[in-house]
Structure formats: C-alpha cells, structure tokens
TrEMBL record:
Residues annotated with N6-(pyridoxal phosphate)lysine modification: K200
Keyword terms: Lyase, Pyridoxal phosphate
GO biological process: glycine biosynthetic process; L-threonine catabolic process
Pfam families: Beta_elim_lyase (PF01212)
GO MF: L-allo-threonine aldolase activity
Keyword field contains Lyase: yes
Gene Ontology CC: cytosol
CDD domains, alphabetized: TA_like (cd06502)
Name the record gives this protein: L-threonine aldolase
Keyword presence, Lyase: yes
Top-level division of the source organism's lineage: Archaea
SUPFAM superfamilies per the UniProt record, alphabetical: PLP-dependent transferases (SSF53383)
Domain Aromatic amino acid beta-eliminating lyase/threonine aldolase: 3-286
Length: 339
C-alpha cells in the first residue's frame, strides 16, 4: 500500500531508533531529563520564542495553550474549519469551559482584521469577553494552505489592539515556512504561542512542542501536569524529536511530490485537483460521480491510502515514506481503477 492517508504514518528512521536507544535520560517532571531539556531549548530557538514545552500530542499542545491563555467562560475566536474546533472532541468546552465563536475565513484561512474586530467580545455585565484568538498555519481542513506572514500579522495585530492574546496551531508550521520561503521565526513572530508537531512531516514517532514566553510556558507546564502529560524518562521519545528538527528542509520534497500527485490526478478524467501549497492534496471526484467516501474506497482497494475529506473530496498527504516513484505509481493505480 502506498500510504497517503497522512504525514503521521511515517516510521521512525534508523537514526531516530538509535537516538532513542542512546538517549541520556532523567525524570522530566523534576526537570532532570537532559534530552527533553535540549529539545525544548532547540525547539524554542527554531521558532524564535523564549521557551518551549514538550507535549505528547498536538491536540494536547493546543488544549494546554487554550486553557493557559484563558479563564473559564470566556470566548475563543477561531475559523470554523479549524482543527481545534473540528477534530479535538470539543476539548475547548470540555477542558477549558470556553465558548467558541467561529468565523468563516474562506480561502484566506485566517480571519481578516475586520473579522477579528467584528467578533471580539468585550467583557461586561452580560458578555464573557474574548480570551483568545486561535489561528492555524498551514490550515489542514482548507487544503494545507500556507498563510503568508502579512495575514497572520494583520489578524494578530487586530486581537492585540484589544489585549487579546493569539495562539497559532502550527501543527505544520514548518511546511508553511518552507512553502513561503520564510524563516519559521518570522511566521510565528506575530503570535504569543505556537504548537507544532514533530510527528508529522518531520518524521518523529511521537511528540509536539508548545512554545511561547518563559512566563507562558511555566504556566503551560502546570496545565500539562493537570492534563496528565507530565512524563518521566521522556528523553527516549524526545531524542527522535531532536532528529526531527533537522528535517525541516526535507519538507520541500513532500511539497514537490504533492504537486506531482496533484498534476497527475488532475489529468485523470472526472477528477479536479487544485495545485497544493504544501503536502496536502485535495481531490474533487464529483465529475466522476463518486463521493469522497466512494472515491477513497476505490483508491484504497487499488492500493493507495487516502481519506474522505468532504462530501465529494478526498485528502492525500505526501510524507517521508513516500517517494516520487511511489507518487507516480499511485497516479497509475488510480487512473486504472477509474478507467
Ligand atoms: C494533526 C493536527 C493537530 C493535532 O496533532 P495530534 O498530534 O494528532 O494530536 C492539530 N492541529 C492540526 C492543524 C493538525 O493537523
């Protein structure tokens, strides 16, 4: 099977397995794990933040950020297609008691400053007040869109003008930086905290990072403990995470493969595929008379893993374990199954 379901499906490299075996470890809840400490230091530097926290998953990182930035009962302002709204089990409500206010950001993927201003709520006798603006880059559900610095900046500035902090769900923020050819630190500079995944395109088996100011990360560390995310000899999994930080430039290969895949699939009768910004390819199969579910099933039966995305759309995600030859083979298999 050519597995294009997600960039999370990659297996750790030999170097990562060796790094895990050889990792210098200690009890990280006591701050004693040198490998975790190094990972947190390097991750913070990479995104130009003061400090960073190692967390088991991106979901936990986002939820810790939301809880740490806000007070119970406040509003969080977010795009209606955001991962934190769609795919995190209503955690914003369950774990932080937040009221979610969504806006439709369309292809821009982040709100315009006008949308931010119009949807921020000032606290008064009747209204809870907005506690956080949350952005996403790249934007997964909108097709791996790489949001340019200026749009992140404009949204963040509109929130900051009203003293509302800004979190970035940057699960794939390095994909955005590579696609836009900007320093990740520049992309993240307008926001107060960022979560990014080590376990997606960067190839680590486990783990994500939550970065921000020293003061924010100190409080986030307590929230992580509250949610049960305080880990002990975590250097065993942090060591492959350190290897993963060296894989940022490699993401360009996934993007080139995604463009080749999109090109190839767009050439098949009945399929319509926009050119992807990054490693997420969204295929529309309406013209072929197939729903997303039906098309995904046909692809899977033909040996190409993917997932239904919308009523008539399917998502393919290029990754480290998929070569250019695999992509060409995937296009051939899908063309045959639809012929
Ligand atoms: C994958 C993803 C997450 C969550 O990461 P997990 O490690 O799977 O919990 C959060 N946000 C976005 C945009 C993602 O794509």
């Amino acid at each position: 099977m050519i597995d294009l379901r997600s960039d999370t499906v990659t297996r750790p490299s030999d170097a990562m397995r060796e790094a895990a075996r050889d990792a210098d470890v200690g009890d990280d809840v006591y701050g004693d794990d040198p490998t975790v400490n190094e990972l947190e230091r390097r991750a913070a530097d990479l995104v130009g933040m003061e400090s960073a926290l190692y967390v088991p998953t991106g979901t936990m990182g986002n939820q810790i950020a939301a809880r740490t930035h806000t007070d119970r009962g406040q509003e969080i302002l977010v795009d209606d297609q955001a991962h934190v709204v769609k795919w995190e089990l209503g955690g914003l409500a369950q774990l932080s008691g937040l009221q979610v206010r969504t806006v439709d950001c369309g292809e821009r993927a982040v709100p315009t400053p006008e949308q931010v201003r119009a949807n921020l709520v000032d606290e008064d006798l009747h209204r809870p007040g907005t506690g956080l603006l949350s952005l996403e880059n790249t934007h997964n559900s909108r097709g791996g869109v790489a949001v340019p610095v200026a749009h992140v900046e404009a949204a963040a500035e509109a929130a900051h003008d009203r003293d509302v902090p800004v979190h970035l769900d940057g699960a794939r923020v390095f994909n955005a930086a590579v696609a836009l050819d900007v320093d990740p630190a520049d992309l993240v500079a307008p926001v107060d905290s960022v979560m990014f995944c080590l376990s997606k395109g960067l190839g680590a088996p486990v783990g994500s990072m939550l970065a921000g100011s020293e003061e924010f990360v100190a409080r986030a560390r307590r929230t992580r403990k509250l949610l049960g995310g305080g880990m002990r000899q975590a250097g065993m999994i942090a060591a492959p995470g350190l290897c993963a930080l060296d894989n940022v430039d490699r993401l360009a290969d996934d993007h080139a493969n995604a463009r080749a895949l999109a090109d190839g699939l767009d050439g098949i009768q009945g399929l319509s595929v926009p050119t992807p910004d990054t490693n997420v390819v969204v295929v529309d199969s309406r013209e072929a008379g197939l729903t997303g579910d039906e098309f995904a099933e046909r692809c899977t039966d033909a040996g190409v893993g993917c997932g239904a995305f919308g009523e008539y759309t399917t998502r393919f995600c290029t990754n480290w374990d998929v070569s250019r030859d695999d992509v060409d083979e995937a296009v051939d298999r899908i063309a045959s199954t639809l012929a």
